[in-house]
Design goal:
Bound molecules: adenosine-5'-diphosphate
Number of strands: 18
Helix content: 25-40%
CATH superfamily of the largest domain: Glycogen Phosphorylase B
Radius of gyration: 23 Å
Number of helices: 19
Number of domains: 2
Oligomer: single chain
Largest sheet: 9 strands, mixed
Length: about 475
Amino acid sequence: MRAVLVSAEVSPFAKAGGLADVASALPRALSELGVDVRVIMPKYRSVEEKTPLEELARFSVPVGKKDVECIAYRGRLPGSDVPVFFLGNDHYFDRAQIYGEGGGDYPDALERFVFLSRGALKLREELDWHVDIVHANDWHTALIPAYLRAGIGPSSARSVLTIHNLAYQGVFPWEQAATTGLSDELLASFQHARKLNLLRGGILQADYLTTVSPSYAEEILISGEELEDDLRSRRSELAGILNGVDYEVWNPETDPHLWANYSASDCGGKEENKRRLLDELGLDVDPSAPLVRMISRLAEQKGFDLVMASFERMLSFGIGFVLLGTGSPQIEEFFRSATEKYPRQVAALITFSEQWAHRIEASSDIFLMPSRFEPCGLNQMYSLRYGTVPVVCATGGLRDTVHEYNPHSKSGNGFTFRDYDAEEMLSSLRRAIGLYKEDPQAWMELRDRGMAEDHSWEASAKEYRDLYERALATRA
Ligand code: ADP
């Protein structure tokens, strides 16, 4: 079976969030299962810094009325034979950021991702690939299923669209619809609330749909960011497949970013990382006090209103607090001023740094992820492997992966709260801190249980492969 996965982000070449991790790990896992898989992404400025590139082809891509030049390059996913094809156009992609600077998307976002979506199919044609499955991801590539239906691409190929986050739909003024190059008939499914909505069209046109956890797949049929009716109409083609963890990248035993490596059988290195982190960040809390951390896009979805509303009470529990994140200017400002006010207890790194993400992962005791909604969430699974106990709102993928600690049966791997509410969050955080301080033995057992869990990609990649097979079986 031959599959092509198209994504706006792929780790380590360009990353804004979990999409990049999935678009890198899933193809490698599929390849290990025998699927012939290729990856296509834009050639952003960051790509050249990360990998040598080999020019492969030059061709033009229709974007609205324009024919836009594309230079395609070839590379591969590190640690694998999976080829990655980078579609280059400096006007669109030689920019400081992936999506935009100062909050919103670049104003020509529609053109940029029409170029990626049509360019991916044009590359296939130029190189004369046989393709069975085209796997699109999120709104950026949600036009691909409609392009296949329009005959732009092989008629025998089937499309799969994965929704990594329904909250981002790629919405543009309807007047820009011609940029897509689709006929009025196909465009009808892209109209929503008098706007052009790329994700809606993808949902209606893809052969199969997936989202990134079973619980989120159920939740979006009930409340789906105004697309629930469309999702319900595709219920029998929608699957929730939990994301996995790439343990090549997220493994405290081998992680090159850490000050000290460690494992479940010898956790001494975790203490060492914590000492170094407190030192580097100038935190002056008792090393035996629990260190709570958040690593996140600073977006409303991630529960920052709860954290900001109860921050001083959280600090009164006698914790150290570390944040790594960028995003909303208001949330950034809140944490900047919190570090000024509590320099010994709070550190905020307002930046995007892979190295700090790994270090903080390893150095902290408790991971707080109070998301209002969470399609899957990856950090809670990374935390489990790094011996950092998660405290989460039981929604979407967090509900599927974090289970409340039960002191009697000694089961569970973290602490959860059901209602999206600051008091509920504080109460589960208090339970975690209480156990950490009062019963170190039980804490260690809880931590070790999490470290021993296996969230690798293999099982999920098999589900994707089965879904690809089901899609292929629908070929006439
Ligand atoms: P989302 O995709 O909604 O952002 P996930 O938990 O699924 O949330 O994935 C987030 C990914 O992005 C994780 O790999 C996390 O470590 C990473 N990440 C988020 N913010 C930062 C940051 N400021 N620096 C480094 N990595 C970050």
